[in-house]
UniProtKB/TrEMBL annotation:
<feature type="domain" description="Yip1">
    <location>
        <begin position="17"/>
        <end position="180"/>
    </location>
</feature>
<keyword id="KW-0472">Membrane</keyword>
<feature type="transmembrane region" description="Helical">
    <location>
        <begin position="164"/>
        <end position="190"/>
    </location>
</feature>
<feature type="transmembrane region" description="Helical">
    <location>
        <begin position="38"/>
        <end position="60"/>
    </location>
</feature>
<protein>
    <submittedName>
        <fullName>Yip1 family protein</fullName>
    </submittedName>
</protein>
<dbReference type="InterPro" id="IPR006977">
    <property type="entry name" value="Yip1_dom"/>
</dbReference>
<keyword id="KW-1133">Transmembrane helix</keyword>
<feature type="transmembrane region" description="Helical">
    <location>
        <begin position="109"/>
        <end position="126"/>
    </location>
</feature>
<feature type="transmembrane region" description="Helical">
    <location>
        <begin position="132"/>
        <end position="152"/>
    </location>
</feature>
<dbReference type="Pfam" id="PF04893">
    <property type="entry name" value="Yip1"/>
</dbReference>
<feature type="transmembrane region" description="Helical">
    <location>
        <begin position="72"/>
        <end position="97"/>
    </location>
</feature>
<keyword id="KW-0812">Transmembrane</keyword>
Amino acid sequence: MADFDLERTQALLKGAALNPEPTWDSFRADNPDWTQTAVLVAGPMIVITATLAPILGWIFGTNMLPGAGGFVTQIFVTLIFGLIGLGISGAVFGLLAGSFGGTQSFDNGFAAVSLAAVPGYAGQIIGTLPLIGWLIGLALSIYSMVLLYRCLPRFVGVPQEKRVGHFVVGLIILVVIYAIISFPLAGLFLTGSGVPAV
């Protein structure tokens, strides 16, 4: 398991949002495996968002803050589902790269997806602002998609002429996967069999 390094995490999160390309190259040069990405980028990013978004939403009156036990549970559940979501996305783009002339690698796909997601996660925090927060959040989510398109070739080596195909096919596969996953989850909650509210 990779060791957590607060200074490295701060530099990666800040760089991924404000100075992405040198940050991608720096992280890629470390040849990170998925555990390093989870500990240094994805995990902290999700925990920060899951902590700050509800608190700021409560302060600005755009969200209700759950009780102490519910708040901790919410952070934990958000972390688990966030890592699963980034992991699925990283697997799709990373493993699909081999079919488009790139290097098939879950580790590299996960790293690319996690770094590109930083502005989108920041948008979830900023989205709690009243009036224009949702618009800024939407813009940052779109920016994350643009960054993902630019970041993936650096990590999985898909050639220029196949980048659009790789990106579009990856997105289609993800939409299908999430649609399949969402049906049983929706069924659980609609029938009252889901996790009870705390």
